Amino acid sequence: MLLTSLADRIASLPKAELHLHLEGSIQPATVCALTARHGVVMTEGEVCQRYAYRGFPEFIEAFKWVTSFLRDPQDYALIARDLAEHLLTQRVAYSEVTLSIGVMILRKQRVEANFEALLRATEPFESRGLRFRWVFDAAEFRPIYDRAAQIGLHRLMHAGEVGGPEKIREAIELLGAERIGHGIAAIHDPALMDFLAERKIPLEVCPGSNMKTAALARQLRREDVRIEDHPLPKLLRHGIPIVLSTDDPAMFHTTLQEEYANAARMGLQEHELTRIVDMGFEHAFPPCGETHRA
Ligand SMILES: [Zn+2]
After folding, report:
1. Minimal CB count within 10 Å: which of 32, 109, 129, 172?
2. What are the structural domains, with CATH classification, of the chain?
């Protein structure tokens, strides 16, 4: 029997990817196809330059630029197929993908038409072992979350990425968030860490993103941070559920396999990495038992 490396063993496991933005997942070659559809010819090199940035404000600029080419339902179908093919290379079996509905509304598009195109584009991937669920972003606005709870929708929220631990508490206590996007600021508040562990509220941790947006540097209050300084091991070993994710993989030049490699660089052992793989399925909305380690 061949001995495979740890990376190969983790790579071979079916995984769930729960914190992923569709608009941040458009690979450079697909960006070229997308801009060409709207009369703008670009090389992959030029797109990569647009995707090279330091810090959060420049990332937001790049995000606005690429989404300016998402103009009709076919554009959404194109990028959804591209994402699905990419996820299959990562052995992702289940994915919850966040859609920036706000961007569609801002650009006066028909949200329903875009969403239908997404469903049609991704449905054929079910037979190839990849299931999608969709997350609609909502403003940090309490009535929306209350309404979502009333009609039985799950609630999740970005908090404690660049903000402090109090933002995580607010998301849970005021908005009823059941999962927290990022949440790395929890390391500053031991009582909050206890609370997250007791209530089993998962943090969707995206280490590559935290490096690229400088969120990690901000949380650790120094500039020269390395991936090994990430608090993921501390949070995990405190008993807080962790789901490992890529956030905006194309724009942050990462993949889910690479994030597992990052977690290994932080010193996580194989049993901890496989535990994280399992938690991706355990904390999915809704529970997807039939795809679990299929
Ligand atoms: Zn995010």
Report:
1. 129
2. 2-282 (3.20.20.140)
Return d(Cα 169, Cα 216) in angstroms, integer: 19
Question: Which one is catalytic: 161, 178, 204, 259?
Answer: 161
274 C-alpha to center of ligand 1: Å? 23
**Tens digits of residue pLDDT in 146-164:** 777 777 778 888 999 999 9
> Quick check: is 161 catalytic?
yes
Rounded to the nearest angstrom, the distance between the alpha carbon of 64 and the centre of ligand 1 is: 15
Cis peptide before 286 (omega within 30 of 0): yes
Cβ atoms 203, 243 nearer than 8 A: yes
> From the CA of 33, how far away is ligand 1's center (Å)?
25
> Measured in angstroms, how far is the CA atom of residue 71 from the centroid of ligand 1?
22
pTM for the predicted model, two decimal places: 0.91
